[in-house]
Amino acid sequence: MKKIEPGNIIIQIFLIVFAAIQLFPLYWMITFSLKGNMEIFGGNVLGLPETWRFDNYTKVVEETKLVRYFINSIVVTGLTIFFTLLFSAMITYGIVRLKWKLSKAVYTLFLIGMMIPIHAVLLPLFLNLDPVLNSYVSLILPYTAFAMPLGILIMVGVLEGLPKELEEAAFIDGASIYKIFFHIILPLLTPALSTVAILTFLSSWNELMLAVTFISDSRFKTITTGVMELIGKYSTQWGPVGAGLVIATIPTLILYIALSENVQKSLAAGAVKG
User: Fold this and answer.
1) 11 occurs within a structural domain
2) CA–CA separation, 55 and 243 (whole Å)
3) How would residue 21 be classed by pLDDT, with cut points 50, 70 and 90?
4) Full-model pTM
5) Which residues contact 203 (CB under 8 A, 6 or more apart)?
6) Domain holding 211: CATH number?
7) pLDDT in tens, 236-270
8) Residue 98 has pLDDT above 70, yes or no
9) How many domains does the chain have?
10) What secondary structure does DSSP assign to 86-136, as a single string?
């Protein structure tokens, strides 16, 4: 029989407590979405609902435009992820594999972009994007621009650890640089691409400031602005607000579960390289 060490028991207890702390906000949000105002502000703040109000979800779907906003968020976030992954991978390949004098300067320039807060460029963006305000483009462009520096940082670390022999063999066989990039480099960058996709999804899907500033037309509003509209000026039914938050959170959970294995591979590859 395997001997149980006290150190392992302590670690297991710590991990269980840590997991419970991390999962508690999700539990609270789900139970919050199934309660009425009396329970939320009464004595049953953390417990299970006394009356399970599934009609909160029905109200959100039928009485608001949240479904439309949900679809808008999928479109904006999906295109943002696509352009971020494509452009970041192409720039990373140019920086790491193609030898030119300004490669390090360009890399540094992109890294500087990580230090620029959205608040500092809100007004310049608003003025420059004036022709495309109230459209998907007004969100996709800045979302992609802000996501690319981190994407490039992650991919550079992974690509530098990949052997060049595969590319050299492909060159000898007559493959063009574009064929090498799309058929060799991109598949090898899959773990890093998954990591960047999740981070880009989180930043774009949950973004509120640009969405509120650049979009006033309800046809193009995103899920974050839709949830915000559920809060009334004088009174608010907080159960439907919680239902809206749950609906907005579901895609995040699905994406992370689907890509978590590739994220772990990417982090492991970066750790080995370091």
Assistant:
1) no
2) 9
3) very high
4) 0.84
5) 143, 146, 147
6) 1.10.3720.10
7) 788 888 888 899 888 888 887 877 776 666 555 54
8) yes
9) 1
10) HHHHHHHHHHHTS--TTHHHHHHHHHHGGG--HHHHHHHHHHHTGGG-SST
